């Protein structure tokens, strides 16, 4: 298994943050999105929030390939619909590259 940690900011608006959290509750998530994540070889995913900053932890198996996941997502209308909905709440980090949403974090410590 390989672990990825990624960061993204939400728009700093309490109402938008509450709505974003609503969509991420198990009972409100879209099954097609969950399936696309699992089918890509992502074995576990968690998102944490402090203020308007998000951190995602992904645990991937040997099937995971970032380029393949990106291509699959781009070709999946339901994933694109979800991403468009989520972009209502999200904003790129100031240092994100053009078109980049979630930015990979660099591990700087391990115990």
Automatic annotation (TrEMBL):
One Pfam family of this chain: rhaM
The organism's place on the tree of life at top rank: Bacteria
Example GO molecular function: racemase and epimerase activity, acting on carbohydrates and derivatives
Name of the protein described by the UniProt record: L-rhamnose mutarotase
Species: Chitinophaga eiseniae
